[in-house]
Amino acid sequence: MKKLDRKQMAARVARDIPEGAYVNLGIGLPTMVADYLPASDKSGREIIVHSENGILGVGPKPAPGAEDEDLMNAGKEPVTLLTGGAYFHHADSFAMIRGRHLDFAILGAFQVSVAGDLANWHTGGADAIPAVGGAMDLAVGAKKVLVMMEHLTKSGESKIVERCSYPLTGARCVDRIYTDLAVIDVKSDGLHVVDLVEGLSFEELQRLSGVPLKRLASAA
Amino acid sequence: MINKFVASPEAALADVPDGATVMIHGFGNAGMPSALIDALIAQGARELTIVNNNAGNADSGLAALIAAKRVRKILCSFPRQADSWHFDKAYRAGEIELELVPQGTLAERIRAAGAGIGAFFTPTAYGTRLAEGKETRRIGERDYVLEYPIHADYALIKADRADRWGNLTYRMSARNFGPIMAAAAKISVVQVRETVELGELDPEHIVTPGIFVKRVVKH
């Protein structure tokens, strides 16, 4: 099979974001989706990226030397502002999130359960210093929560689980999971496989995942 | 004549007592009022409760305040960062208490304090360990967690421009927590890049009206 690398995963997610969408990209892998969202798309598709720290219309990374320490994304990396972008304060920013104005939150995850529970903020280690940021607000607030993660842990265990063993970020909040192996919708009657990477059979994905999957008629 | 301009950061913070609750504006370094934090360190107040999104980066600003052992407790959403070593050390040594608050709940608790709201229900953190022990309620089809406002004695803010009435504008994403912290604190102290004559700020563009501001220092 041809596992997707991180860039291919980002491109796969970006493909599904429609014209006119307001999108928040989590720290890490989800931030890479920005590289494949069209500010620059030949098709003219316009998508507006939100950042928790008070930006709508986040643009690409600035050219070296053009960074401005007052213009950062939520990961504290320098960014630019698209023409038409706006700045606002934190309470307004989270009103956009909690008030169900954002179309998509794209988040990384340690685990997602079959019920759509999300665990992405804490490994549960007694010695770990906890940090949550805006993840819990995004999990309950966005109209659609999309998760991006590797399908398996480094030791080969499925990150899609019957029940999360890590502390939850939100309960029953995930709508769709994008992994390096598949795209899976989380629905009230279970997990539906929407897409598989080239050369991977449904049966093999089922074996690797360890939780019951349903096959969509359109999936290979 | 109203004049909120103060001569120096030191003069603006001379009355901060031990045990005060101090909000510090900024998201990482964007909006962090470094000159005011340096003045607070020099002033010497101890046992402070600090409210900020983070818990200090590298060795300056809030990180320096923590390194100087002036902070008893911190309320924040994201303390752990690659360069949060002063907080990490103090936390592991049991020298600093952490109240971890989801970022939107942190913003809303600050906003609520400034707006005179007694408490509010938010869906954020329902069913997670950050809601353990908190009152919850089902309203309509959703479950909510009861959260209380965060009031402060002081807010330390960095803005871009101010006039002598304390009207403020900010710059880019350095606005972040400034407007809501200004409203939530009894005494808001603002560090600005530029002071201007009354009337120079376009009334349509003033972000924080001077009613929320007590002292302004150019730095």
Molecular structure report:
The complex is a heterodimer of chains A (220) and B (219). With 220 residues, chain A is of the alpha/beta class. Chain A has a single domain (6-215), classed as Glutaconate Coenzyme A-transferase (3-Layer(aba) Sandwich). Helices cover 15% and strands 26% of the residues of chain A. Chain A contains four helices and 13 strands. Chain A has a ten-stranded mixed sheet with strand order 4-3-2-1-5-8-10-11-12-13, sandwiched between helices. Chain A has a three-stranded mixed sheet with strand order 7-6-9, with no helix packed on it. The model of chain A has no long low-confidence stretch (mean pLDDT 94). Chain B is of the alpha/beta class. Chain B has a domain at 19-100 and 151-218: Glutaconate Coenzyme A-transferase. Helices cover 22% and strands 27% of the residues of chain B. Chain B has helices at residues 9-12, 34-43, 62-67, 85-92, 103-115, 178-184; strands at residues 21-24, 48-51, 71-76, 97-100, 120-122, 136-139, 142-147, 152-162, 168-169, 185-195, 215-218. In chain B, strands 1, 2, 3, 4, 8, 9, 10 and 11 form an eight-stranded mixed sheet that branches. The radius of gyration of chain B is 18 Å and the shape is globular. At the A-B interface, helix 2 and helix 3 of A face helix 4, helix 5 and helix 6 of B.
- Terminal CA distance of chain A reads 13 Å
Inertia-based shape of chain B: globular
Query: What is the fold-level CATH name, i.e. the topology of chain A?
Result: Glutaconate Coenzyme A-transferase
Taken as a percent bin, the fraction of beta residues of chain B is 25-35%
* Total DSSP E strands of chain B: 11
Going by CATH, what is the homologous superfamily of chain A?
A: Glutaconate Coenzyme A-transferase
Count, helices of chain A: 4
Radius of gyration of chain A: 17 Å
- Strand-residue fraction of chain A? 25-35%
Percent helix of chain A, as a range, is: 10-25%
Q: Helix tally of chain B? A: 6
Instruction: State the major sheet of chain B.
Output: 8 strands, mixed
Sequence stretches where pLDDT stays below 50 over 5 or more residues of chain B: none
Classify the oligomer.
heterodimer
**Pattern of helices and strands of chain B:** HEHEHEHEHEEEEEHEE
